[in-house]
Amino acid sequence: MRISVDQDVCIGAGQCALTAPQVFTQDDDGLSEVLPGREDGHGSPLAREAARACPVSAITVAES
């Protein structure tokens, strides 16, 4: 799986970091980003849940 965050869409709600803290964090501006080395999701079932929790659908989880 491939995980990405569209920072042009992200509003910094932080739902992804709360749902899957092993995959997501927030940068200095409060916008969400995927932790380095976690772009492939490492099989985290919470990555999809975090994408669903995003209020502006800024997270994409795609099968590789």
UniProtKB/TrEMBL annotation:
Identification of the protein by name: Ferredoxin
Function according to Swiss-Prot or TrEMBL: Ferredoxins are iron-sulfur proteins that transfer electrons in a wide variety of metabolic reactions.
Co-factor requirement: [3Fe-4S] cluster
4Fe-4S ferredoxin-type domain mapped to chain residues: 1-29
Pfam families: Fer4_15
Keyword set includes S-adenosyl-L-methionine: no
UniProt cross-references to InterPro entries, sorted A to Z: 3Fe4S_ferredoxin, 4Fe4S_Fe-S-bd, Fe-S_cluster_ET
Keyword rRNA processing attributed: no
Superkingdom of the source species: Bacteria
UniProt keywords, alphabetically: 3Fe-4S, Electron transport, Iron, Iron-sulfur, Metal-binding, Transport
